[in-house]
Amino acid sequence: MLEPNLVYVVLILTTILISCAIWSRLRKPLEYRRISSHVPSLTKNLWNEMLFSCTIAMKHPKDLLPFFKEIFQNNGPVVHANITGRSYVLLNDPDDIKILLSSTSYINKGPEYEMLKPWLNDGLLLSKGLKWQNRRKLLTNTFHFKTLDMYNPAVNKHAKVFAKNLLDACVDNKEISISEYVTLCSLDIICETIMGTEMNAQKGKSVQYVHSIKSACRSVIDRIFKFWLWNDLIYRISNSGRTFFTSIKVLHEFTDNVIKRKQSLLKNSGNQKVQPEIKLEKNRPKSFLDLLLDVLNENPDQMTIRDIREEVDTFLFEGHDTSSIAMTMTILLLGLHQDIQDHAREELYSIFGDSDRDATMEDLNAMRYLDAVIKETLRLYPSVPSFTRELNTTLQLKKYTIPPMTTMAIFPYILHRNENIYPKPEEFIPERFLDEENKSKFLFGYIPFSAGARNCIGQKYAMNQMKTVISTVLRNAKIVSSGCKEDIKISMQLLIRIESLPKFDDFFYLMLNIVNLFGRTVDVTEMIDLNVYGVVLISLVGLISYAIWSRLRMPLEYRQISSHVPSATKTFWSEMQMLWKMAMLKPKGTYANEKVFKLMIF
Ligand code: HEM
């Protein structure tokens, strides 16, 4: 049964691939089609294009960033590649990146962002033109420093719950997985600050939302790189697409709930427009959701409930997942570098002494070393590993002219490892960010929050939140992470994720992809959903065949060695047991994933 299916898959995929490539080439203007004649290109002809499209589609997310890094190493900082007819230019030169990002002519996102539309609709991250301009202007006010000050008590409150939960979980020196704790804390913070409503995620109320975000992100990245999933119909019937639509149902329900709670809070306070605590101070700025609901009430032509939902969806996602990854990575790195951790703690002691008071805005500004630690973490592990822009008009780079309709792709993860900007780029050295001389060097060579008109609107908010949470942990606990930095493997998804899987064989991954296309429930990025029985069966068959085969091909005297030399594998069964145990051995410190944290009370 399997073989004819496989033939059909290959046939269908090849047909889709060729038709997409030919069709999209023909409909583009000539200059667009000729881009590869003057920009170093990986896909100078149709065959190369098909090969590249397939290679990229079959890459495991953990191999994507090293793959792109190698492309830059081999071809220079500006590289062209067609993926089934879509033209991409990959940029890794800070000067060229500056030209692109600092111009207000190139603010539209690439076509991949369309894949997020069913989830985030036309929220700030995805919107274009006038709609984006108006929204950005309106919402920028809600990240004013006075507003951030107003959020401080809530951030401190949730940071303390987070630290307590970690310490409770680490009783008896137990190792714990930290990422879920961080994510729930981040979610509580975003809900109570900018949404103005408590969701009690840290009390276990929103675990489903967090899992759905992860599934949705995985499905989207799957779609971005696998050209056969670009088609809406195929995506909808594929396993990846079904996971995506199931997940966004949960995500939308959560957002609706946040909005309803806020509306009922406002109703109960007897004032539809202003929050009770804001009423006390007349000039106090409004928080995000208050402001949107105000506009809805006062100018229903300008804002509908649908508009509010798309912004709440966008800010809930962008506002908690990005910073929770950054906090997880910072805590992991501090646990691996005890000297840096001690230095950060000394700084906190000089600010707070033995007091357990809340961190104020002045305290946060005084945390210069912790600030550098977080910045260095974001250099090595920028939460958003890559982003794109689509050109409306011609772009003149330092050396090349890029025609309209090209998608420009930037990879902060790779840019931040440029040896010319960052000596010893793989090393964790927060001091780089304390040296004033480096500031000009880092401009456009350091873009974890992007740059220019479409940079991250929540940058300052995120830094404050991260400093508050991490300083609270450091003031209460000593962090120890097992493993070493080299063991951290990053998976390129919409946002980065720590790879916590045993290594997948490439062939195994390819087979999973094919099975996935036919809708079996096999999740390729999380072992949890993997068909465990299938894996055990395949491993056993492989083991037995190997043992029989290797015995039979050896001379008899070799096979009888265990009869006179003390042996650990006297029987066939004990040999298999030994093989299995060796295969399952976890070398000390090999998996520095988020499951190997130890927090110690000091
Ligand atoms: C460590 C934390 C964060 C990082 C590394 C980060 C990074 C980024 C990056 C790289 C972009 C540009 C994406 C692109 O061009 O496609 C972006 C945009 C955005 N971020 Fe953040 N972000 C963080 C935290 C936040 C927070 C806390 C919020 C909200 C409270 C937020 C809201 C947004 C929004 C709405 C956009 C779209 C802005 C626009 O297009 O005008 N981010 N962020």
UniProtKB/TrEMBL annotation:
Tagged with keyword Repeat: no
Pfam families registered for this protein in UniProt: p450 (PF00067)
Subcellular location: Endoplasmic reticulum membrane; Microsome membrane
Stated name of the protein: Cytochrome P450 4V2-like
Cofactor(s) needed by this chain: heme
Membrane topology qualifier: Peripheral membrane protein
Species lineage: Eukaryota, Metazoa, Ecdysozoa, Arthropoda, Hexapoda
GO cellular component assignments: endoplasmic reticulum membrane
CDD domains reported for this sequence: CYP4
Entry-linked InterPro entries: Cyt_P450, Cyt_P450_CS, Cyt_P450_E_grp-IV, Cyt_P450_sf, Cytochrome_P450_Monoox
Primary role: May be involved in the metabolism of insect hormones and in the breakdown of synthetic insecticides.
Entry keywords, A to Z: Endoplasmic reticulum, Heme, Iron, Membrane, Metal-binding, Microsome, Monooxygenase, Oxidoreductase, Transmembrane, Transmembrane helix
A Gene Ontology molecular function term of the record: heme binding
PROSITE patterns: CYTOCHROME_P450
